Amino acid sequence: MADAPETPPNAGIGSRRLTNTFIAAFLLFQVAMPLRYYLGDRGYDERFSWRMFSTLRMQQCEMQISEALSAERSAFREVQVRRDIQVAWVNLLERVRMPVVEKYLARRCERQNASRVSYTRRCIDTDGSALPVQTWLMDCASHTLREGPP
Fold first, then answer.
1. Domain with 106 in it
2. 117 within a domain of the structure (yes/no)
3. How many domains are there within the chain?
4. Model pTM score
């Protein structure tokens, strides 16, 4: 009977190294994603399932959009946002999704011939205390968005 060929001692090292590299990359990704969220400036972005029990969703918040028309540079008028866009977009505005806020303010600049458009958000925390008012202002001439009062 013929003997089976002997397996060289280094036969499985290449596939084992590839497997270990994949596992290490997967674990690094699992650690880096939450760190990117916490170390970045995305405090109101709760799209990850591990953030679903956050108290941010429990806050009572209202947002208001106001615009100053070119003819009346100093007087702001309130925009009826719920009449202008659908409720899903209103919810994103209320949750301070900055790309949505920026795009909506730019849209108000273009459509309404406004000189400035402001976004204001007021919230009551879960313990009943008022949180600082958040305000962003877009200058329609330059389309620059800055944080602060109008």
1. 58-147
2. yes
3. 1
4. 0.62
Side-chain half-sphere exposure of 15, counting CA atoms within 13 A: 3
28 lies in some domain: no
Residues 56 and 47: their CA atoms lie apart, in Å, by: 12
Length of the chain: 150
Nearest residue to 44 via CA among 68, 63, 25:
63
Hey, what amino acid is at 62? E
The answer to whether position 45 is within a domain reads no
Decide if 110 is inside a domain.
Answer: yes
Rounded to whole angstroms, how far apart are CA atoms 146 and 149? 9
Q: What is the pLDDT of residues 8-28, one digit of tens each?
A: 566 567 788 999 999 999 999
Q: Give pLDDT tens digits for 45-69.
A: 555 555 556 666 677 888 999 998 8
Q: Say if strands 114-124 and 134-139 run parallel, antiparallel, or are unpaired.
A: antiparallel
